[in-house]
From TrEMBL:
<keyword id="KW-0474">Menaquinone biosynthesis</keyword>
<protein>
    <recommendedName>
        <fullName>Demethylmenaquinone methyltransferase</fullName>
        <ecNumber>2.1.1.163</ecNumber>
    </recommendedName>
</protein>
<comment type="pathway">
    <text>Quinol/quinone metabolism; menaquinone biosynthesis; menaquinol from 1,4-dihydroxy-2-naphthoate: step 2/2.</text>
</comment>
<dbReference type="InterPro" id="IPR023576">
    <property type="entry name" value="UbiE/COQ5_MeTrFase_CS"/>
</dbReference>
<keyword id="KW-0489">Methyltransferase</keyword>
<dbReference type="Pfam" id="PF01209">
    <property type="entry name" value="Ubie_methyltran"/>
</dbReference>
<feature type="binding site">
    <location>
        <position position="64"/>
    </location>
    <ligand>
        <name>S-adenosyl-L-methionine</name>
    </ligand>
</feature>
<feature type="binding site">
    <location>
        <begin position="104"/>
        <end position="105"/>
    </location>
    <ligand>
        <name>S-adenosyl-L-methionine</name>
    </ligand>
</feature>
<comment type="function">
    <text>Methyltransferase required for the conversion of demethylmenaquinol (DMKH2) to menaquinol (MKH2).</text>
</comment>
<dbReference type="GO" id="GO:0043770">
    <property type="term" value="F:demethylmenaquinone methyltransferase activity"/>
</dbReference>
<feature type="binding site">
    <location>
        <position position="82"/>
    </location>
    <ligand>
        <name>S-adenosyl-L-methionine</name>
    </ligand>
</feature>
<dbReference type="GO" id="GO:0032259">
    <property type="term" value="P:methylation"/>
</dbReference>
<dbReference type="InterPro" id="IPR029063">
    <property type="entry name" value="SAM-dependent_MTases_sf"/>
</dbReference>
<comment type="similarity">
    <text>Belongs to the class I-like SAM-binding methyltransferase superfamily. MenG/UbiE family.</text>
</comment>
<keyword id="KW-0808">Transferase</keyword>
<dbReference type="GO" id="GO:0009234">
    <property type="term" value="P:menaquinone biosynthetic process"/>
</dbReference>
<dbReference type="InterPro" id="IPR004033">
    <property type="entry name" value="UbiE/COQ5_MeTrFase"/>
</dbReference>
Amino acid sequence: MLTTRATLDKHRADVASMFDGVAQRYDVMNSIMTLGAVDRWRDLVVDAVEPAPGQVILDLAAGTGTSSATFAARGAEVYPTDISMGMLQVGHQRQPGLHFVAGDATRLPYADDSFDAVTISYGLRNVENTSAALAEMLRVTRPGGRLVVCEFSTPTWAPFRRVYKDYLLGAIPAMARLASSNRDAYDYLAESILAWPDQQRLADLMSDAGWRAVAWRNISGGVVALHRAWKA
């Protein structure tokens, strides 16, 4: 089992098992934990990805396919991919028109230069090896293609950072006790946000993996950061 004291050291089997256990209520819990902001953040991801007819998009850590459905609605060919079979099964039930794929972000089951865009939302911090995943994403992206990473990050206003940390460590586990049968999973998720690199450090990891023109946009005061980059 994953311990609730999260670090950047994770094992894919543990992560998959954790998400299997929360799959049925994951989307509801996302809305509760973000006080409804997750819908606006999803819209910003779609704008950054710029899906269009004829494009092929890889949606990693796709979960139940909520984001993938928005890309498909704009005419793109989407490959929602996730390591959690539980998430994929729920996704099949809720989004029967999507073709879900089981896959590990560090060993993607796709050929080189396959996608016009790769995106991952709130999942990169749960990957076993961040640098390996970023390199794999680069491998499967076509030259000139783009990467969009949406992830919880570090609030930019110092006084708010303290309040935010208290919310993560207190409010989210309390919400999980009321709305989820897997409180340990949400303890872990809260801790993993605090252990995650800030905006600049994530940008550096992306650059080190070979991505170019890396930039980010802070959302909700840096609670979330939207990073974009391109393959040369």
